[in-house]
Design goal:
Elements (H helix, E strand, L loop, with lengths): L6 H8 L3 E4 L11 E2 L5 E2 L4 H12 L3 E6 L4 H9 L4 E4 L5 H11 L6 E5 L5 H4 L4 E4 L5 H4 L4 E2 L8 H13 L2 H9 L1
Parallel strand pairs: 1-4, 1-6, 4-5, 6-7, 7-8
Antiparallel strand pairs: 2-3
Helix pairs in contact: 1-7, 2-7
Length: 179
């Protein structure tokens, strides 16, 4: 499936050096499943995970900023070698600013994908602000780009490939699979 070409969004994506992901509703479908003992389960999309790995191979740094704290997110971040992970708290802007300072990056060099109102402070600052189509209306009205796929169902893979194409690294990274 191809994303409609928007020249301004291609230009924004071409500048991305760090891509930060929200978790619930973006890397997952937003559902929380609880076992009999109260343990929480999350389902992550394998293709989204490979998209993140390929984006990293292309040279883009990756991070997670999530309002919820869960060991499942920490484990998934380790699996994907996502180095920058902040969990817990509705104030996502403070860790966002700290990460930019730590990496000496500007807001213009950062992409962020979110789905709910707690993401708006970052989305309003990120150089490339992205939402999933099932995001809250308040979010959808404030982003540069909306993915075709829903959160937890390929949205992350889609936007990772979009960034790689915008940066001209897609063919190089995919050559290992496509010959």
């Amino acid at each position: 499936m191809s994303i409609p070409v928007d020249v301004a969004n291609l230009e924004r994506a071409a500048k991305v050096k760090l891509f930060i992901f929200d978790v619930d509703g973006v890397l997952t479908d937003g559902g929380l499943h609880y076992g009999a003992e109260g343990e929480a389960f999350k389902t992550f999309n394998v293709q989204d995970g490979l998209g993140i790995k390929l984006l990293q191979e292309s040279g883009v740094l990756t991070g997670i900023i999530s309002a919820r704290r869960s060991p499942q997110v920490a484990a998934r971040a380790r699996d994907l070698a996502i180095e920058f992970v902040h969990q817990g708290g509705h104030d996502k802007l403070t860790p966002f600013k700290a990460l930019l300072d730590q990496l000496n990056l500007t807001e213009e060099q950062v992409a962020f994908i979110g789905d709910d109102v707690v993401d708006i402070p970052i989305l309003s600052r990120a150089g490339f602000a992205v939402a999933v189509p099932n995001a809250r209306p308040e979010v959808l009205s404030r982003v540069h780009h909306v993915t075709e796929h829903r959160g937890g169902h390929g949205a992350v893979r889609e936007i990772c490939e979009f960034v790689m194409r915008a940066q001209g690294s897609y063919d190089r990274v995919m050559a290992q699979f496509l010959g």
